[in-house]
Amino acid sequence: MNRTRLNIFLQHDHAKRIDELATMKRASKSSVVAMALASYFTPESADRREGGVARRLERIDQRLNSLERDQTILIEAFALYLRHHFSITAPVPDAHQDAARAQGRARFEQFIEQLGRHLQRGQRFIKGVST
């Protein structure tokens, strides 16, 4: 058999695993590496790797489609809410504008604090609404 000598650098963990496998199989490190390379280069191995990649890409595609659907629902719901809010909310008279702004700031700060607490607890509001 024709063989070519190679000097390679491996990560310490990989070299340790090759050494352990060689000891366990009672084979040389070179033969362990040769078997691994032969397995890697077989068409069946390449097909398995490509199949695994294809399955992972399919799962990623499904997740992206789900995110896109959820985002579309969120945008539509928000637009519907805004249209409803703007159609039923009476304009604030000029004399009360400053008080309305101050109250709006206070409510917004309270909303942000409540949102922060809710997210820190890891809870999702939508789960409570949908069940």
Indicate the topology.
Blueprint: H1 12-25, H2 29-41, H3 43-88, H4 97-120, H5 125-130
**Number of helical regions:** 5
N-to-C SSE series? HHHHH
Distance between the termini: 69 Å
* Proportion of residues in extended strands: under 5%
By secondary-structure content and strand pairing, the structural class works out as mainly alpha
Q: How would you sum up the major sheet?
A: none
Can you give the mean pLDDT? 88
Overall helicity: over 70%
Radius of gyration: 31 Å
Low-confidence stretches: none
Overall 3D form:
elongated
By DSSP, the count of extended strands is 0
Give the key terms:
131 residues, mainly alpha, 0% strand
Give a summary of the structure in a few sentences.
The protein is mainly alpha-helical.
Structure write-up:
- The chain has 131 residues and is an all-alpha fold.
- Among the domains are: 12-41; 95-122.
- The protein is 79% helix and 0% strand.
- The radius of gyration is 31 Å and the shape is elongated.
- The N and C termini lie far apart (69 Å).
